[in-house]
Amino acid sequence: MIITVLDLLAPSLDHPPDIVYLEGTVGHAIMWTVYDKHPGLFTIYQDDSHIQTGNWTNGAFTVNVDGLKGDSTPRTYNFTLIIWDEHGNLANDTVLVHVNRTVSEPSVGSNPSSFIDSSSVESSVVAFPIVFFLYGLLVVGLLVTHLRIRHR
Question: How many structural domains comprise the chain?
């Protein structure tokens, strides 16, 4: 008698959280935890483009997502991992990566005053009353001197 045991269970694949980061920063990665008694192949897609295929092993499956470019609004990338075991059972998961620009640029129609360095405004606002006060002293001093000369 021959007993055939079929493996109909899909590999175990968790769902890590989506990622948000600023363009130009480093240390960003997606880390899936994968498990099956008979690991097989994996495929990774970024958006709709195939990135890599190979063999996987149980444990942490990490994909570095540094170096992605942002946009004037957060740019979103879609990373999908598909894993198969040796018996053809599969599991998949998708993680979104949102990348923001590090420097915001003024857009057409934006308020230019929002791009003024407030420290320069404060120093000029403080300087104006001082200059006005000194000018007033000068005028008063000239007037007093003029009246003294006339009254002699």
Answer: 2
Indicate if 24 and 96 belong to the same structural domain. yes
Whether 79 contacts 94, CB under 8 Å: yes
Same domain membership, residue 90 and residue 42: yes
119 confidence band (pLDDT: 50, 70, 90)? very low
CB atoms near residue 85 (< 10 Å): 20
Q: Can you give the residue range of the structural domain that contains 22?
A: 12-100
Same domain, 96 and 33: yes
CB hemisphere CA count around 134 (13 angstroms) = 4
- In terms of pLDDT, which residue wins out, 128 or 42? 42
What is the model's pTM?
0.65
Q: How far is CA 32 from CA 66, 74, 76, 90, 115, in A?
A: 16, 24, 19, 15, 41
Instruction: Say if CB 73 and CB 98 are below 8 A apart.
Output: no
The answer to whether 93 and 13 have CB atoms below 8 angstroms apart is yes
CA gap 52, 71 in Å, rounded:
26
Q: Dihedral angle at the C-alpha atoms of 119, 120, 122, 128, nearest 10 degrees?
A: 160
Question: Which two tokens mark 6?
Answer: 């079929």
Shared domain check, 123 and 95: no
